[in-house]
Amino acid sequence: MASTSETGHAKNVANFEDMISFCNGYGGSYNPSKIAIQIPSLNTLRTNAENAVADVNAANTAFINATNARQIAFNPVKPLATRLVNALEATDATDELIKDAKTLNRKVQGARKSKGQNPKRHQLHPIHLQKINRFPFHNKAMTALLRMLES
Question: What is the mean pLDDT of the segment spanning 108-113?
């Protein structure tokens, strides 16, 4: 059965606020000598924690937006890689070059050559930063193919 309890920073801050309320319930009898656990210090710490949670939420939102933007930017890479391989096959390129291009295309697509290729590894996951370097665009033939497909 799945757990239904809440966890995380927001829950910890809420529990900390409950603890402060509990200490306030003691009234004047809660009077520790250590300054760090006196009510004003605890309230300051709670405020700092709430601000930190708000900062984390804002940073997480920015991270999610950047991740989504990157994913949208790389959406055309998979079809382009396939088009490049197909265009390369239509040329007089060597079988070895076509085989290498197909291997690179599988890496861009995040797929394996066959199901039993390497049982210890899971399916390859496409990594956006590595996609930039997958196809050798510095190669004159690939650059020419890319220009031909763009026109």
Answer: 78
Run of H or E residues at 46: helix 39-74
**Same domain for 88 and 30?**
no
| 4 is a domain residue | no
Assess if residue 1 is contained within a domain.
no
> What gap in Å lies between CA 113 and CA 103, rounded to an integer?
8
Candidates 42, 57, 60; CA nearest to 10 is 57
Q: Check whether residue 81 and residue 127 sit in a common domain.
A: yes
Domain residue limits at 57: 9-72
Q: Look at the pTM and tell me if it is higher than 0.90.
A: no
Pairwise CA distance, residues 141 & 15, whole Å: 63
Phi, psi dihedral angles at 90 (to 5 degrees): -80, -5
In this structure, the answer to whether residues 89 and 24 fall within a common structural domain is: no
Residue 105 lies in a domain: yes
10-55 residue pLDDT tens: 999 999 999 999 999 999 999 999 999 999 999 999 999 999 999 9
3-state class percentages of the chain: helix first, strand second, coil last, to nearest 5: 70, 0, 30
